[in-house]
Amino acid sequence: MPDSSRILKKLIEEFESGRKPISVNFRELVSWLPYNSPRYSHYVHTYPAKVIPHIPHFFLGCEDFFKAGSRILDPFSGSGTVALEACLAGHHAIVSDSNPLALLVTRVKTTPLSQAHLTNSISKLQQLVKQTRGAVPPEVVNIEYWYHAHTIKQLSRVAKAISKLESSPFKRLSQVALSTTARKISLVDPRISVPVRLNPDRYSEGHALKIKTALHLKNLESTDAIALYFRILKEVADQVASLWPLRKSLGKLENVYTNSLTSGSRSLSLHAASSVDGIVTSPPYLGAQKYIRSCSLSLGWLSITKPEKLRSIEDLSIGREHFAKKSYSEEPKKCLPAADALIKKVYHRNPLRAKIAASYLSEMKDVFKTCHKVLKKGAPMVLVSGCNMLNGEMFDTTAYLQQICIEIGFKPVVEMTDIIKSRGLMTLRNKTASVIPLESVTLFNKL
Ligand SMILES: C[S@@+](CC[C@H](N)C(=O)[O-])C[C@H]1O[C@@H](n2cnc3c(N)ncnc32)[C@H](O)[C@@H]1O
User: In the prediction, which pLDDT does 96 show?
Assistant: First the structure.
């Protein structure tokens, strides 16, 4: 893997002379990494608002900043893009995410398995599915609304067969494939990440998507869910098997935490102080991502979460939009001088939006305090962030997060910006919480 230290040093010098964000294209900075072509196990599962592998790849390959065999933390792992790039660079990964599906995908993505083991395990699972009849469907939210009856029967057989497997990396891989299948074969519009039912009438007469959607709906009536499942399972298996030849140089996924806030017995805040060598992360956006809702069908099919528990997981999700009415009956407490005036203004027009923004900033502050505690002195932290609109006003998330970090004891070393080409789950909602298509990447050092 090429050492990108020289490029980064030049960018730092340029930043120091102008103190303005430098416009870069990360895909070009790491031109040796092809864009949109499969790279090991990065695409085992889709996930909302993934970061492009090029950003962590660039930084983690800077040997002057990230020494070989470092411990790299991503407090917002999502699908594990940073964790996999860390392992590929020979570092070890520590992750946290409040979405159990994110942690499952991260584990699968970073665990190499041999082709022989996978082929053998897949054929055993095929036998098991054949022998499994009359399976009761797991508790999936509004299952009959999202699936045809024959699909429910077939997916339930797969789910039951998987549940009989002993806990193992292969079982997790088979769950990831079930999650993808359950999404693909549902009546959910694949173009929207939160579940919305496919409906050709959404499009005007003659619109290409009208015909495409109608055709897709027709196909779903006769799709064999079990055959589709095993096709997807083989694809996922092939990706994971591509890591096997690298297993000796590949870093390990060392610690997995279930959230970055201070609550819970598996919270990142319990990690040992000054034990992490570097952080690379892309935090959730304010109000734009509904991670739990977008994964609700998968969480049900995998029997990870019962429908009535989805809300309690969502309550841990930073950037969430659901709050009890009484929690915003009063103006939010001041949390950041640069944002307080805007939040106050928005409060008078839309108290819920003000509550969402204030909670976001104060929870992000808590997470950065934990990041500061666990990071070694002088160690780097890379923050990928973007800005939002809040009730028609610019909410400068990047500047706010930078100020929080500076307040806590991080020093900005360089800031870069890149145009977001594609980020899932950017729901535009009547100017209340849209996302601006510019990604900022800031490198800090812990003072
Ligand atoms: C922008 S996504 C990260 C995407 C990731 N970089 C990738 O490439 O897939 C942000 C993640 O933060 C997670 N998150 C939100 N609140 C959290 C919390 N309190 N603790 C840990 N993770 C949280 C969400 O579940 C989501 O997976």
Answer: 98
Tell whether ligand 1 has an atom less than 6 A from the beta carbon of residue 259: yes
Whether the CB of 103 sits within 6 Å of ligand 1: no
**Spatial CA neighbour of 252 closest among 169, 162, 176:** 169
Ligand 1: does its nearest atom lie under 6 Å from the Cβ of 291? yes
Is residue 391 in contact with ligand 1, taking CB distance under 6 Å?
no
Q: Is the pLDDT reported for residue 58 higher than 60? A: yes
User: Is the beta carbon of 386 within 6 A of some atom in ligand 1?
Assistant: no
What Å distances lie between residue 436 and 19, 44, 428, 440, CA to CA? Answer: 22, 28, 10, 11
Mean pLDDT of the chain: 93
Q: What residues does each domain of the chain span?
A: 5-112+251-446, 115-241
**End-to-end CA gap in the chain:** 29
> How far is 71 from 278, CA to CA, in rounded Å?
7
401-429 residue pLDDT tens: 999 999 999 999 999 999 866 444 344 43
Query: Which atom of ligand 1 lies nearest, measured to the CA of 79?
Result: 9
Confidence category of residue 223, pLDDT binned at 50, 70, 90:
very high
Residue 433 Cα to ligand 1 midpoint, Å, equals 18
Ligand 1 pocket: which of 46, 77, 366, 426 to mutate (most atoms within 8 A of CB): 77
Written as six digits, the tokens of 288 are 């734009």
Q: Which residues contact 261 (CB under 8 A, 6 or more apart)?
A: 98, 267, 269, 316, 318, 363, 366, 367
d(CA 67, CA 447): 18
CA of 76 to the centre of ligand 1 (A): 4
In short, whether 269's Cβ falls inside 6 Å of ligand 1 is no
CB-CB contact of 212 with 256 (8 Å): no
| Spatial distance between the Cα atoms of 362 and 360, rounded to a whole number of angstroms | 6
Is 5-112+251-446 CATH 3.40.250.10?
no
Q: How high is the pLDDT of residue 421?
A: 60
**Residue 60: what pLDDT?**
97
